[in-house]
Amino acid sequence: MSGVAAEGGERVVCTGCPLVCDDIVLRAEGTDAAGPQPFFEHACAVGEAWLVQASARQPAAAAVVDEEPVDAAEAILQAATRLASCRRVLVTGCQDATLETVAAAASLAEQLGAAFDAGAAESAISSGPLAARLGRVTADFEELRDRADCVLLWHTDPSQTHPRFIERFLEPAPATGRRRVFVIGGAVAEAAARGWTSVAIPQSQGAEAAVSLQLMLATQAPGRAAQSTCELPPSSHGLGAAVAEIAAACRAAACVGVVTSSGAEDATGLAAAAVSRLVTALAHTKPAFEIPLAASPRGAGPATAAAVCTWRFGAAGAVALANRDGGLLAPAEADACRLIDRRDVDGVVVVGEPPAAVTAALAGFDGLVVALGGAAPSTRGLQIWIDTAPTAVASNGQLLRDDGRLVALHAVRPTARPAAAAVIEAIRGHLSDEELR
Amino acid sequence: MSDSTAETLVLRRGRLHDPANGVDGATGDLWIRDGRIVEPQPKADREVDLDGLVVMPGGIDLHSHVAGPKVAVGRRMQRPAADGCPDAVPTIHATGRLYAALGYTTVFDAAIATAAAPLAHLELAELPVLDKGIFLLAADDDEVVRSLAAGSADEVARLIADRVQASRAWAVKVANPGGNRFWKAGRRGDHRDLEEPLPGLSLTGREMLSRLAQAVADLKLPHRLHVHTINLGLPGNWRTTLSTMQAFDGLPAHLAHIQFHSYTGGDADETTFGSGVEPLAAWFNDHPELSLDVGQVLFGSTMAMTGDALAAEHLAAVTGVPWSAHDGFLEGGCGILPVTYREKSLVHAWQWAVGLEWFLSVNDPWRIALSTDHPNGAHFTAYPTLMRLLGDEAFRREAFERIHPAVRRNSPLAGFTREYTLNELAIITRAAPARLAGLPQKGHLGVGADADIAVYRPDADLSRMFAMPARVYKAGVLVAEDGQLRCSVPGGVLAARSG
After folding, report:
1. Is B317 within 8 Å of A224 when comparing Cβ atoms?
2. Which CATH number fits domain A130-294: 2.40.50.140, 3.40.50.1370, 3.40.228.10, 3.40.50.10240?
3. Model confidence over A16-30: pLDDT tens digits?
4. Under 8 Å CB-to-CB from A306, ≥6 apart: which residues?
């Protein structure tokens, strides 16, 4: 929890990536020509930059409307007025928002009869509903650290999206004393130096590799009827030897962890589903779990918003109509990018920094964009941007780490900048006014 | 239009069923002010005529799963419901709306891990109408388990008190004592008994149960230790359930969803699966310190969700259905999977019959709470159907005739002709849960009680009667009428203080 006193400093939660490191300590501020600078002990380079930016002085303008600086109250009124006249609105972003902010955003979406996409992994793939129904066997990050003596980094380099993941959860030895790590496809910096085994399986063969591995591992579980094993034909697209080595390691392991990432390369979700099925099958025989990492380029990721959306709307994202009695997960219809690209919406409320794909989609959008916090997205048309207090260092509240653990935030650097939740509630208040209805 | 708590409201001439105060259908008035039932006043601001209508305290669900991370997974895994049917795992708002429309005014989520408690409370804050509480899976907490192993009663009590307070919990729940340690150590699907030590510890399941029950009693928590015992769903598990009951040795304890723990049979032959209720009920009836809820199975599709990761994995392995699980750090885990109960399935038919056999075998309705372990056995909106099965022997017999023939031939249920009276139904759905939960201000219609009231149109078809109350009051405010939510008042959080 941030705000707790650490010796010689204040404990801070970094929301620069979905790892949500809560062991950062804000130490005595050094100085340079620009003035006092904070020092965040244990923070990675991404986190340091994120926290420094969050600690920076307030921007010159509290809000911008149509490229002109205005005060926040005027911008809030303009936002409410223009949203009220939209045909259909999308509420999105929430990649770096507290539970409280997301709850407010969800209420705004309901009030507007808006679509809501929090950017959860299954929201972006057409097979999202099926992927959700297939289920997943997962674990907290610390379970990987403490128990997994065989880890597969499945077409993912955690350092790209979760910079301290390797340091915090793979480098410490598990209870068995030794961990074997396979880097499947791609490249992870210093893999060889770490003694990790790189396995050249291209991403295009990821699904096949997962299925092959599952077949190889099909075996007799204690207390269960024997299942037939399957050996791949020698000429199975060259995967046989690579998969066989991994299978041998998995069989020998006490606990297997498979780290995955929701990447844009797997548009249908086939590879992700195959890996999930592999882990599930393995977990029927021994301790095994998947550690799915959000591919969020910045911010704490979609876990927080996904949680609120699920309890509020019944789906983690891509809900065509925000309705507290429930809504369908409809990635093909209500994914943020599709709604924007197809001009199914003429108004978009972006809370904090959106995912990169949404930012790209908004670049060509000529409808209303109301951006709360973060950097203002550029559009050709109307635009409203309202500055809000950064989530890191300046906000109170709670949010979820990528694995679902709740982390409490305390504003160690309170700011006069309004909280995003407060801005949203103010917009909602105007929307309730008789004149706007 | 809702009735304000500031005014004096009188509900006149209802047929009152208030078992806690010995009232069984007598006509009477209820005076309400400031959210409570009060003595008759000189005058009323509003009067409502309930002539001919049945009046009961608001329903109390002692064991349900409505919030928290595993419920969230259930929402994401479920298939869309058929038109007009509620989702197996509704949104938090729909959950409150549906419960309120059914006449329920209090609900407990029966399994929340300590790390998940803050998130569960955030979600429950959005549950409309109902008062709510959580049962904490404190026995999965690693530090608690180690203190149980060390055997220091004071330390166990201190740790549990700390966690209950920090989590704002109402009660302590243990789900498959030690099961998650076996799970993480690699155990899959097999039977075990209460004498087997937990991996890495000298602590047995029996010792866990007795020490936890003692700690809960010492702390004077309002609800006794809530127990989901080992071997859930496994053939032959009646023996370990009996061992569980015996482990408490006179200490109060509540046995959760006992139906899932009451089977005869062995692994090798499904046809030996059957009812183990008789010896269990005999012991239970003779030991007044024990209470239970049934966890009745009703036919249809639903989602199973449990803090018993071992049981969930085994069910998924046996049935081949999709499955989710999550292991918590220094805690236990959970499992979630879809389930469809079929009349013509031998196992499902036995489960259905075993649950009803329990209801009809327990002599004292004050020690039994109606539940389907929502959503595991069935959706809570099916409670009216269950009430009809209990109160209408002809209806029960018709349903019995549709199930698997082997169960019809062999189930003791065939010999039961007992019918629950309206008062007994009121006991197991309101008065008993209130008493068992330690809620003296709920579950009755006496002066001082919370004005949580459900009003029904009498009907020979009990399922129709209880499916759509004419009016539902929460703290004296009309919140539902004829199945529709009228007013979304926020409910309160029930959090225990240890004594």
Report:
1. yes
2. 3.40.228.10
3. 999 999 999 998 766
4. A118, A120, A316, A317
- B124 interfacial to chain A (CB closer than 8 Å): no
Residue with tokens 């789900």: B175
* B59-437 and B9-57+443-485 share a CATH fold: no
The Cα A323–Cα A312 span in angstroms is 8
Q: What is the ipTM of this complex?
A: 0.94
User: How far apart (Å, rounded) are the C-alpha atoms in residues A251 and A282?
Assistant: 9
Of residues B128, B6, B125, the one with CA closest to residue B489: B128
What are the sequence ranges of the domains in chain B?
9-57+443-485, 59-437
Give me the residues of B, 67-106, that contact A with CB < 8 A.
67, 69, 71-73, 75-80, 87, 90-94, 97
Residue A413's nearest CA partner among A54, A34, A96 is A54
Spatial distance between the Cα atoms of A368 and A390, rounded to a whole number of angstroms: 23
CB atoms within 10 A of CB B328: 27
Compute the nearest-CA separation of B70 from chain A (Å): 11
**pLDDT-derived band at B191, boundaries 50, 70, 90:** confident
**CATH number corresponding to B9-57+443-485:** 2.30.40.10
Domain boundaries, chain A: 63-120+299-391+413-436, 130-294
Give the percent of chain A with pLDDT over 70.
87
Identify from B91, B132, B182, B485 which residue to disrupt to test chain A contact, counting A C-beta atoms within 10 A and taking the largest count.
B91
Between residues A332 and B474, which one has the greater pLDDT?
B474
**With an 8 Å Cβ cutoff, are B336 and A135 in contact?**
yes
B59-437 carries CATH number 3.20.20.140: yes
Please, are residues A373 and A352 in contact by the beta-carbon 8 Å criterion?
A: yes
The DSSP code sequence of A110-135 is: HHHT-EEE---GGGSSTTHHHHHHH-
- A63-120+299-391+413-436 — its CATH code? 3.40.50.740
Which of residues 90 through 149 in chain A touch B, CB cutoff 8 A? 99, 103, 122, 132-143, 146-147
Residue B461: CB atoms within 10 A of its CB come to 12
pLDDT at res. B268: 60
Nearest to B251 by CA among B287, B206, B208: B287
A254 vs B: CB within 8 A: yes
CA trace torsion B178, B179, B185, B189 (10° rounding)? 150
Enter the pTM of the model.
Answer: 0.95
Residue B22: partners with Cβ closer than 8 Å, 6 or more residues away: none
Query: Alpha-carbon distance A206 to B349, whole Å?
Result: 43
Angle, alpha carbons B461-B466-B472 (nearest 5°): 145
All residues of chain B having their beta carbon less than 8 Å from the beta carbon of residue A280 are 322-323
Q: Cβ–Cβ of A326/B90 closer than 8 Å?
A: yes
> Does the pLDDT value for residue B39 go beyond 60?
yes
At A42, which amino acid appears? H
Tokens standing for residue A255: 């606990």
| Confidence at residue B7, expressed as pLDDT on a 0 to 100 scale | 92
Give the mean pLDDT of B378-406.
98
**Least-confidence region, from A52-66, B81-95, B343-357:** A52-66
CA distance B485 to chain A (A): 12
Residue A203 identity (one-letter amino acid): Q
Question: Chain A: residue nearest B118 by CA?
Answer: A406
- Chain A (308-367) residues lying within 8 Å, Cβ to Cβ, of chain B: 310-316, 324-326, 328-329
The model's confidence at residue A295, banded by pLDDT at 50, 70 and 90, is confident
Distance from the Cα of residue A167 to its chain's centroid: 19
pLDDT computed for residue B498 by the predictor: 64
Q: What is the pLDDT of residues B443-456, one digit of tens each?
A: 999 999 999 999 99
The pLDDT assigned to B189 comes to 83
